[in-house]
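Following up on my earlier thread - several people asked me to post the actual chain instead of describing it. Fair enough. Here it is, all 459 residues.
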Amino acid sequence: MRGRIAGSVFVLITLVAAYGIVHTGLTLAAGGQTIQMTAWTIGPDEPSYYRRDNLLSAVDALNKQLAAEGSAIQVKLDATFTTGGGEAWGAYKQRFVLAAQSDKAPDIIGSGHEDIAAWAAAGYVVPLDAYVKKYPEFSDVIPTLWSATKFNGQIYAIPQDVEARPLYFNMPLLAKLGWSQARITGLPKAIESGQFSLYDILRMAKDAQDKGLVPAGHGWWIRPINGPDYYMYYEAFGGKMQNAEGKLLLDSKALHDEYQFFYDAVFTYKVTPKDIIGTDWNSWHETFVGKDVFFSQCGTWCWAQWTKQYKMPADELWKTYGFALVPPGRQGGKPVTLSHPVVYMISKASQHSDLAARILALATTPQLNARHAVTSGHLAVLKDEARVPQYAQDMFAKDTFYMLGFTTFLPNNKDFGSYDQAIWQSLSAVIAGQMTPDQAVQTAIQQMKTNLGTNVVIQ
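Reply from S.P.:
Thanks for posting it. Predicted structure:
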């Protein structure tokens, strides 16, 4: 037995050296038992590594608590962190589904909240309501975030982080268009009050291109792959994704307005290239930090990527780009943003769900969440998090926190994947010039009627 324990410690030390983990909290009680657990997490952006490391810190705290309680149990957590472009999400989620189907899923899985409905309906993850009531750490979660963790009235996940998805604008280029410093500084407020619309972006972007301030097709850049961001534009034109009963909803007029806006961006104003979809993320970010884009839209986490991953000096970033909510579709409307909380779930395959829940509780502290938020460009998920000095002193975190007052979430609906596929296929066809907005709306509606039937309300 001693040989076995010694061998385990040797293997652990080897893994620590190989993967750069400073500590894991493994301490063996005399004659005790080491429980091996696993957790999978994903960035996919590189600065979000605390999604993994916060769990390792929680295990440290758990093992100290167990020792103080006189327990012979200690926990070893094998935690992984996946990085890569947006394409990494699909492979990561598929890997979890296959593991869950073969009863080999990790104890803890971190993913987007939109996976809750499908995974809960399939029985891959377990409800956490009893744990949320049991552990006081969870009472600090900002109340509105719990709505993003529920399926059929039950809580299936713990919020790990939240973000906004701002509009970014090149301030020196606004000055070259004749804007005063006061007007540039006031743009976020003008958007918030509905005085600046999405079509104002297109008009100004075209003006900047016509005057040679940015290359053709660099006036307005959008996300180069499918993602939650695109629903902000649907909502900016008044669209909603769910009705009061929680059923999926498609507003055909708002969808048409969204498709028309992107058609106009590419073909009428010609400020967005029609081959933007499929652009490599690295090229996208490198063009941005090269200051060759006038308006763009990306998540708050991109701010951290631009300084840490793409090496743009922080002072230069602050001097070059401002940020604001996504404007309303028309003047007088309401600005929008959308949050895609990353959450922790406990898999049905876990044989130690009580310990997994305790780990999640110990990972849900203002200090741990603040270090993740500041390092990776995310926002507070806990009420006391904003009081942590590291968070309170971070200017970007403070200046974007207000956006959560305007945010919405994707529906936690098991049929959302089919809904999303129909909307995205038609939208990408509009951007590529393969469909008119009218054709795209009719195609999306027909696809939803075929695949979803009465599970979606079309108006």
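The chain has two domains: 2-162+341-408, 167-338+415-458. That should answer part of your original question.
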